[in-house]
UniProtKB/TrEMBL annotation:
Highest taxon in the source lineage: Bacteria
GO MF terms held by the record: ATP binding; ATP hydrolysis activity
Keywords, sorted A to Z: ATP-binding, Nucleotide-binding
UniProt keyword ATP-binding present: yes
Domain ABC transporter intervals: 5-233
A Pfam cross-reference name: ABC_tran
Family matches, as InterPro entries: AAA+_ATPase (IPR003593), ABC_transporter-like_ATP-bd (IPR003439), ABC_transporter-like_CS (IPR017871), CP_lyase_PhnL (IPR012701), P-loop_NTPase (IPR027417)
Gene3D superfamilies the UniProt entry points to: P-loop containing nucleotide triphosphate hydrolases
UniProt cross-references to PANTHER family, sorted A to Z: ALPHA-D-RIBOSE 1-METHYLPHOSPHONATE 5-TRIPHOSPHATE SYNTHASE SUBUNIT PHNL (PTHR42798:SF7), LIPOPROTEIN-RELEASING SYSTEM ATP-BINDING PROTEIN LOLD (PTHR42798)
The name this protein goes by in its record: Phosphonates transport ATP-binding protein PhnL
Organism of derivation: Agarivorans albus MKT 106
Family note: Belongs to the ABC transporter superfamily.
Length: 233
């Protein structure tokens, strides 16, 4: 079986232009292969570059060196050199992303936010609505909130809308940056179920999980980051 995604010899240094162009090495010779149906958990202390690696895998951060290969049938697309329009196309139906924070879209209801990725991929209105309702119910977002814009929701409610949106489509690759960080144990458990179901259908998942119990339930293996001290050396 061939990987769904390969990161090869990734290097990245932040240059802080407003601080005398200080160099902050964040990723050193990172190598990672992700296969369908598994969840790889990025493991390392705070500041070890976990979120930076995940953002690089999403094409959000430009890496300085290395390849970020995404399987496209017989071909590979290198995110490190891809055009913006190719990255946008990948995000529409290939790579899903859930971070700790919902990017609230003004005036769009919670239901619309969850339906949006499905509608953009040609799924019918009624099918998208049914799936969105199932996800919002699974994540215990009260029905009275579904037609409201999430701007006024609590942090945990916003996060659950965000997660519902991230799991609305069956993306082949899912990137999860601390999706359960602001959730209580019961809701975190509901997210664990979504992750396990995604693996079951063959999703390749890379995640960062603050809670060890969540990590232990979802991880097939850990990818150890280098520690900041090693990076600086
Ligand atoms: N956009 C950025 N610009 C400059 N430095 C950054 C940026 N993003 C992250 N960093 C720095 O890179 C290091 C790694 O951060 P991060 O990837 O968020 O680590 P983690 O997710 O493991 O806590 C930290 O020292 C952080 O301050
Ligand atoms: Mg982080």
């Amino acid at each position: 079986m061939k990987p769904v995604m390969i990161a090869k010899n990734i290097n990245k240094t932040f240059i802080l232009h407003n601080q005398g162009a200080a160099h902050l090495p964040v990723l050193r010779q990172q190598n990672l292969e992700i296969f369908a149906g598994e969840c790889v958990v990025l493991n390392g202390s705070s500041g070890s570059g976990k979120s930076s690696l995940l953002r690089s895998l999403y094409g959000n951060y430009q890496v300085d060196e290395g390849e970020l290969l995404i399987s496209q049938g017989e071909q590979w697309l290198d995110l490190a050199t891809a055009q913006a329009r190719e990255i946008i196309a990948l995000r529409r139906n290939t790579i899903g992303w859930v971070s700790q924070f919902l990017r609230v879209i003004p005036r769009l209801s919670a239901l619309d936010i969850v339906m949006q990725p499905m509608l953009e991929n040609g799924i019918s209105d009624s099918q998208a609505k049914t799936k969105a309702e199932t996800l919002l119910s699974h994540l215990n977002v009260p029905e009275r909130l579904w037609s409201l814009a999430p701007a006024t929701f609590s942090g945990g409610e916003q996060q659950r809308v965000n997660i519902a949106r991230g799991f609305a489509l069956d993306y082949p690759i899912l990137l999860l940056d601390e999706p359960t960080a602001s959730l209580d144990k019961h809701n975190a458990q509901q997210v664990v179920e979504l992750i396990l179901a995604a693996k079951q259908r063959g999703a390749a998942i890379v995640g960062i999980f603050h809670d060890v119990w969540v990590r232990d339930l979802v991880a097939d293996r850990l990818h150890n980051m280098q520690q900041p001290a090693q990076l600086a050396g």
